[in-house]
Specification:
Rossmann fold; nine-stranded mixed sheet; binds alpha-L-sorbopyranose
């Protein structure tokens, strides 16, 4: 059995989701290449050691530049905040390592473009983890669209709504600092919805957007408490929020469809509501991540007396990836999409084929997101070249 060694950078929320994926893939999928969890990289040696021991990473390393140069690392897994994606990916590409990178790809279109060019120039496989494409119900939406069941697409109504910073006492974590996060929900969550729109509808031609900031200052976080979403606060000092709290964007697609993207972290009741409605000349689709095993489908081909949205439970062996998991109705979860991504990257390397979404998709996505932020600043419609 061929093996490839993984080197991961980042050991918090995404480090855990990625570790679970690398560990689990071989138990449920027939892999031609088996991933070896070789080395985990991070700054805090103590927390890193605990993470590596818990998940079974063989070694630890606190200098990512050393790690990406190691001859015994074949795939670099970037599970860090987005401000360091660019530098790590460029070094990893130059060292000939394949890359599994968390979203958003980078903090600007320019950075993303350099990453894409470096990856292509060095002939590596590069995957960008917009994990929601690998949700079986989303793959079913793609299948229905590709089979012409939806016809010409008129509209995309996308939304990605969360609520974990509605509390003004939630601290100023890295997600709220422009120098680390790049921007707020526009990049952290709307990037997912824009990726789904590019996957299901097509390229975006122009955007109009507006942003809002509801809370300008927040208490500083207690970095010693791991678990960003726990919201641990240190002392009484406050810091300025330097990203938007919500971004609403309209878009014209190259194929003539028009659409909208609502993204906010101030939607009480919405926990991880990555959602889309898609309307076409022959039918419509609705997906809601909080009900991720289901796809709602309306078809104008149904007899007029029985037309209506039907809810399809995408847990049959015929649905993407499901045959590797459980019998019908034994639903799967958020973390399974990450396993699918690990499996597909290993397969892309084995077969020397491309995987999507990749750094090209990340570059195109950042172009849309940056244009949206520029439109919000100028009040103008921005056309993407
Ligand atoms: C926080 O908004 C977050 O963890 C995003 O960073 C992830 O990409 C998304 O899948 C869930 O929410």
């Amino acid at each position: 059995m061929k093996t490839l060694n993984i080197g991961i950078i980042g050991y918090k929320f995404m480090g855990k989701a990625h570790s679970n994926a690398w560990k689990t893939a071989q138990y449920f999928f027939d892999l031609n290449i088996k991933p070896v969890m070789k080395v985990a990289c991070g700054r805090n040696r103590e927390q890193l050691k605990e993470f590596a021991d818990n998940w079974g990473w063989e070694e630890i390393e606190t200098d990512w530049r050393k790690m990406v140069q190691r001859d015994d690392v074949d795939i670099v897994d970037i599970a860090t905040p987005p401000n360091v994606h660019h530098d790590i990916a460029i070094e990893a590409a130059k060292a000939g390592k394949h890359i599994f990178c968390e979203k958003p790809l980078a903090n600007s279109y320019e950075e993303a473009k350099e990453m894409y060019e470096a990856a292509e120039k060095n002939g590596i496989k590069h995957y960008l983890n917009h994990n929601y494409r690998r949700c079986p119900a989303v793959m079913l939406a793609k299948r229905l669209i590709d089979e012409g069941k939806i016809g010409r697409i008129f509209h995309w109504r996308g939304a990605y709504l969360q609520s974990w910073i509605v509390d003004p006492n939630f601290p100023l974590t890295w997600h709220l600092r422009k120098e680390i996060a790049g921007s707020g929900p526009q990049s952290s969550i709307n990037s997912h919805n824009v990726d789904l729109a590019r996957f299901l509808v097509g390229e975006i031609k122009s955007v109009n957007a507006m942003t809002a900031q509801f809370i300008e200052e927040r208490p500083l976080p207690d970095e010693s408490v791991s678990g960003t979403f726990k919201g641990a606060v240190k002392g009484t000092q406050k810091g300025k929020v330097t990203v938007e709290d919500a971004a609403f964007m309209l878009a014209e697609f190259e194929n003539g469809a028009i659409g909208s993207f609502d993204s906010t972290v101030f939607a009480p009741g919405r926990k991880n509501y990555n959602y889309f409605e898609l309307y076409g000349s022959r039918g419509s689709l609705i997906f809601d991540l909080e009900r991720m095993n289901e796809l709602q489908y309306f078809s104008l081909e149904d007899p007029d007396y029985s037309q209506g949205f039907r809810t399809i439970l995408a847990t049959e062996p015929v649905h993407a990836y499901i045959e590797h998991w459980w019998p019908p109705g034994h639903i799967i979860g958020w973390e399974h999409e990450f396993v699918h991504a690990a499996v597909d990257l290993l397969d892309a390397i084995d077969k020397d084929i491309n995987i999507e979404p990749n750094f090209y998709d990340g570059m195109k996505g950042m172009q849309v997101l940056d244009a949206g932020l520029k439109s919000a600043e100028t009040g103008e419609r921005i056309y993407l070249e």
